[in-house]
Prior knowledge:
- There is one protein chain.
- The chain folds into two domains: 1-72, Orthogonal Bundle (Rna Polymerase Sigma Factor, Chain: A); 103-196, Winged helix-like DNA-binding domain superfamily/Winged helix DNA-binding domain (Arc Repressor Mutant, subunit A).
- Helices cover 73% and strands 0% of the residues.
- The protein has nine helices and no strands.
Amino acid sequence: xxxxxxxxxxxxxxxxxxxDHAAFTEIYNRYWSTLMAMAYNHTKDxxxxxxxxxxxxxxxxxxxxxxxxxxxxxxxxxxxxFSIFKQIERERRRRDIEHKEYKLNxxxxxxxxxxxxxxxxxxxxxxxxxxxxxxxxFNYSRVEGMTIxxxxxxxxxxxxxxxGHLTKGIKVIKTNLKDSGILIIAVSASSxxxxx
Length: 196
């Protein structure tokens, strides 16, 4: 095949799934510096940043046949943010252990809670981007636990309109989660979220 540098991300993803090493190398070369800059900007530690990005690419290769990436750049950027988030939380736990405030046998549970926390914070950010009325309906329903009739009365709109806003909000958030690859990165945490 021709020069991989001319291929689109979607073409590279297809080749990656077929275990094409050259396609993987092109993805690595195309995004390494950007991801390194992101990781370093948060960690302020070159070695830590390199480790985060290296582990990310190892994971991409090992899971290549299972990945359902819509937008490669968004997927990789989100994966780096997730790794940084986990590193920060692990460092916090390490400090807690040193101060004997943390039980070692709770590690596995905390890993799942950590993933759920990251996902929920991402979803919270997506909710803030929704149109105002859609955001209000979503928050009344998912945060305050109000029923559709209660929301309709509170906002002085019809129940059908409430249902429409809620359906739209959930659809937009799920689409953004899928496009960013977050549902693939930490799918084990999905049971804790309010978009089910």
